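User: Can you help me understand a structure? I only have the sequence.
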Amino acid sequence: MTPTRHWLVPGQEEFMSPIVLAVWVMGLVCAAGVVSVETGLSASIFEMVAGIFGGNYLGLVSAPWLDFMAGFGGVVITFLAGTEVEPAILRKKMKESVSIGLSSFLLPWLAVTAVCYYFMGWTRNASLIAGCALSSTSLAIVYAVLVETGLVASGFGKILMAATFVTNMGTVAALSLSFSGFDWKTGVFLAVSLGIVLAAPRILPPIFLRYGSRVIEPEIKLLFMILFGIMALGQWGGGHAVLPVFLLGLSMSGLFKRHKELKGKIRVVSFAMIAPFFFLKGGMSIGLGEVFTGWRIFLVLFAVKIIAKFIGVWPLARRYIRPNAAYTTLLMSTGQTFGIISAFYGLQEGYITGMQFSVLVAVVVASDIIPTLIAQKWFAPGNIRRGLRDEMSARDEDSA
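Assistant: Let's start by predicting it. Here is the structure, written out as tokens:
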């Protein structure tokens, strides 16, 4: 059954005014948060589900301010994820991170591209776009889940985030090499971004020491200005800010280790008011009517992605992080950030149709929701499951 849009609304223009859209968006985000607390599962999952519901049944249509906030949300989450990967641990666990990350990219990319080209009759460019869109792993999802489960500071969590970064490097390289989008502006963007990454750990500490720990939080404003600057450079240079921002966070991990209260403040601001827009907008990008039309393609591509991810990640995860192999494989099967970026690029350049775009984005979001739900429900490390049970028992005793 095809969803009916504008279900509640008599007048679309009035309904879609910025302030009314903001009310609906925040209402959906709040509802997702409540469900997350009651179920003990990641809020990002329910924020995506809320976006699907809002876009297809409430008639919510994105606006420029929401697009901007969603883009910034993905950048901030990626930056924070970079701050959690300590360079010393990354060097020590380089073999594990690189091998898991490369396999997580390569097998799905080859499998999806081949299935689309040889069995579905898609064009070469459309098949390559599909391969890129479904080969990535969502750094935003992985980081959000690790933060909410308390695993972000563990050695396992750091290996998982580093492997996710390697996977996305593969996706970006494949997209760039397949469609040759590199020019002198891109070179300037990369050079300036690298300069910022190298200079930030040297320049920012004395500034934080002089101006930090004040109510107006000038150091957070300065960091956000730098992130905005990298986003602007990326837009101008035809690149994307996510990977340089991750490297920036990685270069500043030592600084944030010494200023834990600063990272705590940024994390609170991000997960309370910025990150939810990223996940909600991802859900709103799906047109369920077009997905229902291409439901067979959706099922095939979803199966190919998940199977390829398991073949690529599971054996290596069992070898290197055996107690958490299933949990790792399921989280590595997500793919929101660069999956949606790749699909949008293909649509804008005319490489894929609107139906192909909706199906690809639906597969990306489904691969965020379903594996994450399974991972947290049945394969979370034992200390997490015990903690959730204790929390639920304490809540029941308080209510009694």
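Now, to help you interpret it: The chain has a mean pLDDT of 83. DSSP finds 20 helices and no strands in the chain. Let me know which part you'd like to focus on.
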